[in-house]
Design brief:
elongated, single chain, mainly alpha
């Protein structure tokens, strides 16, 4: 939780400093904004590590297919990256470009999820055949 508070403090500090820096040092303000954005993204990904550990633990307990878990992890990664890039595009004044990327990411996630849906349908058919 400590990393969250540090990242939040850095974001607030940059938010206060940015208007002044943009007037005098535009290049430095851009680099500072990029650095803090990367720091925030790194902090967010650090919090996902325990989630990945839990998913691998659940995989072992439920004897799930490693391929299905990889698809889930890829889908989450695509969604997070599309969200970050979409927000960056919006900040750059190109919100329509960001929305296009988010639409592409959604379609890609659905495409990647086809094996998961097929496995789910197979499981439903097996359950119905047992009843």
């Amino acid at each position: 939780m400590d990393g969250f508070w540090k990242a939040a403090a850095a974001v607030l500090l940059v938010l206060v400093l940015l208007p002044t820096l943009e007037k005098t040092e535009k290049d430095i303000s851009t680099l500072l904004l990029l650095a803090v954005s990367c720091m925030g993204a790194a902090a967010a990904f650090a919090y996902l590590e325990p989630v990945l550990d839990l998913l691998w633990e659940l995989k072992a307990l439920g004897e799930l297919s490693g391929e299905l878990l990889k698809i889930l992890i890829k889908a989450v990664g695509i969604g997070l990256i599309a969200e970050m890039v979409g927000l960056l595009c919006a900040d750059a004044g190109k919100a329509s470009l960001g929305k296009t990327l988010q639409l592409l990411a959604s379609a890609w996630i659905l495409y990647l999820s086809i094996p998961v849906f097929r496995a789910f349908l197979t499981l439903i058919q097996e359950i119905l055949n047992q009843v």
